[in-house]
Amino acid sequence: MHYSLHRRDIQYVLLFGSSIVQKEARDIDRAIKGIDPSKFFQFYRELILSIPKSIDVINLDKKCSFNALIEKESIRLHV
Q: Torsion angle of alpha carbons 58, 61, 64, 66, nearest 10°?
């Protein structure tokens, strides 16, 4: 079963970190809002297998200061 970005329960995806300021960043940092918690690691696995660079994924559904900073200093990729 594939869990794509086109699923209705993903509100949006953000790009953050070195990925937005460096063309040749070593990794890709993404944050996801609105994903079903039971599907998060399946989604993460599919990203890892489909992208040749190292990737970090943060779930923004938990409220904390780090997630607030990501929301403030990021680029929205998917609405």
A: 20
